[in-house]
Amino acid sequence: MSVLDIKKLAAYRAKSFRLTKLHRVKTRGQALHFVDHRGYVFFWPIKGIDFPSLWTAVAGDRPVSDAHDDPGHITWGWKDKALDQKIWYYAKILRRKSTIISLGIAPYFYALSDNFGSPGEDYILAYEEGRLTRAAKQVYEALLKEGALNTIDLRRSANLGIARDSEFNRALEILQADFKILPVGIADAGSWHYSFIYEIVTRHYPTLPEQARKIGESEASQKLLELYFNSVGAAQQNDIQRLLGWKTDLTARAIRKLISDGKISKLNIPGKNEEFLALAQLGG
């Protein structure tokens, strides 16, 4: 079995993650190109997960700064201004963390979600099967009835005013991760005068279900996995499942297809009894 060249991998990620000053993202237009090229990225870097983020593409490989005037926080403004402009798909998706997805790739994610029929009915089945909490069901029903609402009004309309913050926030994360709701704007509301406005996904992107309906499970998983390897270069199977949240059999089938198509290979790290999956060009 060939070996994984660690130096080649580091150089590959420095370019794909935009870590070097030469490749840094400097404008909103470049940010959109970065997202479209990668297919999907995190907004912030996530500890323990090797994956591109808009923050590191702008600020480099360093922790997110607490200083409000840090140059890297220009990403915050880009993200907020883009919420209602439909230039990309933004929500808490991967690991239930802030994720930006290219509009051309969003249907592949949606095809793997638990949304099969009518948006007004799918959530009921999800709740009955235990995939939605009661709070998530109430939040979704409030948006179905009232339309887009800021976080303050949404909590009130969902009858969660006295619920714990963690219960309400978890409901928002569950619904976003399953492509049922997403933030579509910013409202001057709450004590911080800053509140996300949430809407039903199929109202904001009405053509998404039809686009996804044409994509089968195998095609969707292979596309997303290929984009994953084009970003990270090399990984182990558990890395893939940690990020994408796929079951073992789905992950294994997608891996086998990419191997058979010659897009990735099995490689070892010298001196370690560990098997990696990697782009063939990263072999030593």
Q: What this model shows, in words?
A:
By secondary structure, this protein is of the alpha+beta class. It has three domains: 104 residues, no CATH class; 94 residues, Orthogonal Bundle (Arc Repressor Mutant, subunit A); 68 residues, Winged helix-like DNA-binding domain superfamily/Winged helix DNA-binding domain (Arc Repressor Mutant, subunit A, Orthogonal Bundle), CATH 1.10.10.10. The protein contains 14 helices and nine strands. The strands form three sheets. It has a three-stranded antiparallel β-sheet with strand order 1-3-2. β8 and β9 form a beta hairpin. It is globular, with a radius of gyration of 20 Å.
Overall morphology: globular
Tell me the distance between the termini. Answer: 11 Å
Largest sheet: 3 strands, antiparallel
| Number of H/I helices | 14
Unreliable segments of 5+ consecutive residues: none
Spatially, the strands of the biggest sheet line up as 1-3-2
Structural Rg = 20 Å
- Helices and strands, in order, run as HHEHHEEHHHEHHEEHHHEHHEE
Percent of sequence in beta strands: 5-15%
Task: Estimate percent helicity.
Answer: 40-55%
Total number of distinct structural domains: 3
Q: Care to count the β-strands?
A: 9
Average pLDDT confidence is 95
- Sheet/helix structural class: alpha+beta
